[in-house]
């Protein structure tokens, strides 16, 4: 059961801490798909964990400013009932780093693994991966309505996000709005040549111009780019999908 009365805070915290088995994680993700407010809180917690993870992967020594700032943001933002646990976790991480090793797989249930990328991807790429996984959960739930209308002007008016123009042969299966740290994000589930992919767009909170870059993980592939204040990503559960050409095609429609 996944209604609000039976999904307690401990289950959500265990989800963030990656302490649930596959069945329990599916129950939590189904609950989050039906409860956007709780989904926003969980995504914020996961984002803060990623911030700390990235800071620790920058080859900073323990106690460096970036690490201290990431730890401060993490402990200041988590809810009061989790504060002491979070502080303990940060202290334990600092000890591990000081002796020269860090268990990368212990942080972030959706964190990239077996990454093939020239640079560490920005946080919005992980948000795109989570949105893609949520869309897979929704796809298997007949009770969840789908929206197949991809109205670029309506999306832009409602979210201030300009979506790419899709090729005519691409079929939109669902369009959803997700919360993010800097306003709404958009996720469109698309079928292309028999393959399911997700197109994700968000305002990441900083201006940038980035060409298409690829990210390959153990169980997914992503291609991402940024134009001005809006960032985009294509995601597939097939790690050999080869999304860079499609990403370039979509990027060119935004000029």
Q: What is the structure about, briefly put?
A:
The chain is of the alpha+beta class and 255 residues long. The protein is built from eight helices and six strands.
Structure description:
The chain has 255 residues and is of the alpha+beta class. It folds into 2 domains: 9-106, no CATH class; 123-252, Protein Transport Mog1p, Chain A, CATH 3.40.1000. The protein is 41% helix and 20% strand. It is built from 8 helices and 6 strands, in the order H-H-H-H-H-H-H-E-E-E-E-E-E-H. The protein has helices at 9-16, 22-34, 36-56, 65-77, 83-98, 123-139, 152-159, 244-252, and strands spanning 171-180, 183-192, 195-202, 208-216, 221-228, 230-236. Strands 1-2-3-6-5-4 form a 6-stranded antiparallel sheet. Helix 4 runs antiparallel to helix 5 (83-98). The longest helix has 21 residues, at 36-56. Residues 59-63, 77-81 and 83-118 have low confidence and may be disordered.
How would the blueprint of this fold be written?
Layout: H1 9-16, H2 22-34, H3 36-56, H4 65-77, H5 83-98, H6 123-139, H7 152-159, E1 171-180, E2 183-192, E3 195-202, E4 208-216, E5 221-228, E6 230-236, H8 244-252
Antiparallel strand pairs: 1-2, 2-3, 3-6, 4-5, 5-6
Helix pairs in contact: 3-4, 4-5
């Amino acid at each position: 059961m996944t209604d609000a009365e039976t999904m307690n805070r401990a289950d959500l915290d265990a989800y963030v801490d990656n302490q649930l088995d596959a069945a329990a994680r599916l129950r939590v993700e189904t609950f989050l798909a039906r409860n956007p407010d709780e989904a926003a809180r969980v995504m914020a917690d996961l984002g803060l964990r990623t911030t700390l993870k990235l800071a620790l992967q920058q080859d900073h020594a323990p106690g460096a400013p970036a690490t201290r700032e990431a730890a401060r943001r993490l402990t200041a933002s988590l809810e009061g009932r989790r504060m002491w646990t979070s502080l303990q976790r940060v202290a334990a991480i600092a000890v591990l780093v000081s002796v020269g090793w860090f268990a990368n797989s212990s942080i972030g249930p959706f964190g990239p693994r077996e990454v093939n990328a020239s640079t560490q991807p920005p946080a919005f790429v992980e948000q795109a991966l989570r949105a893609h996984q949520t869309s897979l959960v929704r796809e298997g739930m007949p009770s969840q309505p789908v929206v197949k209308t991809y109205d670029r002007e309506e999306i832009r008016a409602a979210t201030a996000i300009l979506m790419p123009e899709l090729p005519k042969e691409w079929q939109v299966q669902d369009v959803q709005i997700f919360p993010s740290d800097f306003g709404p994000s958009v996720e469109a589930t698309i079928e292309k040549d028999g393959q399911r992919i997700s197109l994700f767009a968000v305002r990441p909170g900083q201006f940038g111009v980035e060409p298409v870059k690829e990210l390959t993980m153990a169980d997914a592939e992503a291609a991402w780019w940024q134009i001005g204040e809006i960032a985009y990503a294509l995601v597939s559960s097939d790690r050999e999908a080869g999304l860079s050409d499609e990403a370039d095609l979509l990027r060119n429609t935004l000029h």
